[in-house]
Amino acid sequence: MQKIQTPFYYYDLDLLDQTLSKMVRARGDSSFHVHYALKANAEAKILAKMKATGLGVDCVSGGEVRYALEQGFGADQIVYAGVGKTDWELELAISSEVHGINCESIEELVVIAEVANKLQKSANVYLRLNPNIDAKTHPNITTGTLRNKFGIPANELWLALEELAKYPCLVFAGLHFHIGSQIEDLSPFVRLCTEVNVLQKALRDKGYNPANVNVGGGLGIDYKKPDANPIADFDTYFENYRRYLNIYDNQQVHFELGRSLVGQVGYLFSEVLYIKKTKELDFAIIDAGMSELMRPALYGARHVIQNVSSVLPDHEYEVVGPICESTDTFGKHVLPTTQRGDLLQIRSVGAYGSVLSTQYNMRGENQPMFSDEENAQQFFSALHAEV
Ligand code: LLP
Predict the structure, then answer these.
(1) Ligand 1 in contact with 295 (CB < 6 A)?
(2) Rounded to the nearest whole angstrom, what is the distance from the C-alpha of residue 217 to the centroid of ligand 1?
C-alpha cells in the first residue's frame, strides 16, 4: 500500500449517508426538525450532506452563523445559542433573520431587544431554560444543572417572559433546552419531556401558546464498539419524544444533534514513531496527539485504537502523542504487537475531533489535517479491502 502522510482525519461519507437516512426514518414526523450542531464538525463536505438531507443548523457563535449562511443554509433553518453572545453576533443573527435566538439570561434579553431596536427589526426569541436535570454523562459535558452556566433557571421563566413582553420587537418563539452530550442512558431525555410538559402546561394556563419547542441534542454513540454499533439509537430517541412529550396545537419540535450524526464517521490515522519500554509500561509513541484529538486529555475520553499494519500477537501499550504534556495520552490499549512505522486508526473521532485541534507546540507544519480527498479515499478503500 502506498505510504500516506500522517496524521490525518478521514471521514467515511458512506457511513454518514447511512446514518442520515436512519435518522430521517426514525424522525419520521414532519413536525420534528433536526438542526445539525455545527460545532461537532464543520467540514464542508459533511455540511453539504446535512444540507442535502434538509437539516437545519445549530450555531453557537457569529462565526458559525456566518459559515452556515455561506454554505447555503437558509436563515430560517438556523438556531443560535450561547451564553456570551456579543453585539456584533446578535446584529448578524437578527439582521439575517435566523429562525431563533436561544436566549440564555434575562440580561441577554435586554441586549437582544436593544440590538433589534437599533436595526429596526424583530427577533424570534427562544428562552433557553435550565431544567436542573442531571444527564448522567461526564460532568464536563453536562449542561442542564444549576451548577452549569447555561440557560435561565426554570423558576425564572415568568420573570423572563415579563421582561420579554416589554419589547414589541421580541417575539416569543418557544422554550429551548439542552441537558448535555454523550447521553447513552436515555432516561434523562424522558425526564426532560416530563419537565417540558409541566412548563408548557403552565405556559398555556397563562395564555402563552408558543409555536415551537426545542429540546436540544445530546444523543450518545457507542465509543466502545464502533464496528458493532456504527449508528446511534435514533429509533428509541425519537420514539421517546413521540411518546412522552406533549405537543400542543401543531407545535414544531426542534432537535440539535451533533455527535450522533457524525461521531462514528471519523477516523484519525496516525503512524507509530517509537516503541519505548520502561519497567512500568510499553509506550507506543505516535504522530498524533492532543493537538489533533483533545478529547482524551480534556475529558478522559477513550477511543478505540486499531493497528491496521500488524497481525502479530496482542500486547498492551500506553498509546501517547508527541506533545510535551503528560495528559497527551490515549490510554492503555491492547494492540497486535506494534513497531515503528505501523499505522493506527483512532475511531469515533468525527465529532469534537478535528474542530478541537490546536497548533500547540507549533504543530501543524507539514501535517495535513485533512489529506487530499482522492488520495485518502483510495487509501481508505485499499486499507479496508486488505483488512
Ligand atoms: N445544542 C447545544 C446547545 C449544545 O451545547 C450542544 C453541544 C449540542 C446541541 C449538540 O450536542 P450533541 O448532540 O453533539 O451531544 N466537546 C465535547 C462535547 C461538547 C458538547 C457541546 N454542546 C466532547 O467532545 O464530548
Answers:
(1) yes
(2) 7
What DSSP designation does 160 have?
H
238 and 307 co-located in one domain: no
Give the distance from CA 235 to its chain's centroid: 19
Closest-CA residue to 237 (of 248, 249, 253): 253
Count the Cβ atoms, other than its own, within 10 Å of residue 339: 14
CA atoms 192, 220, 125, 72: torsion sign: negative
CA quadruple 324, 330, 334, 337: dihedral sign? negative
Q: CATH number of the domain at 335, please.
A: 2.40.37.10
| Domain presence at residue 205 | yes
Interval between CA 243 and ligand 1 midpoint (Å): 24
| Residue for grid cell 510535551 | 324
How does pLDDT run across 204-245, given as a tens digit for each residue? 999 999 999 999 999 999 999 999 999 999 999 999 999 999
Ligand 1 mutation pick, 55, 176, 181, 192, max ligand atoms within 8 A of CB? 181
User: Is 321 contained in some domain?
Assistant: yes
Note the pTM of the prediction, 2 decimals.
0.95
What's the structural domain count of the chain?
2
Cα distance between residue 45 and residue 376, in whole Å: 14
Domain of residue 39: give its range. Answer: 31-257
In a domain, 179, yes or no: yes
**Per-residue pLDDT reduced to its tens digit, 245-304:** 999 989 999 999 999 999 999 999 999 999 999 999 999 999 999 999 999 999 999 999
Which of 228, 257, 286 terminates a domain? The answer is: 257
Helices (H), 292-370: 295-299
DSSP class of residue 154?
G
Question: In 3-state terms, what secondary structure has residue 207?
Answer: coil
Q: Are 251 and 211 in contact (CB under 8 A)?
A: yes
Phi, psi at residue 24, to the nearest 5°?
-65, -40
162 and 272 part of one domain: no
Return the C-alpha torsion angle 110, 111, 116, 122, nearest 10.
-40
For residue 107, the one-letter residue type is: E
Q: Are residues 93 and 135 in the same domain?
A: yes
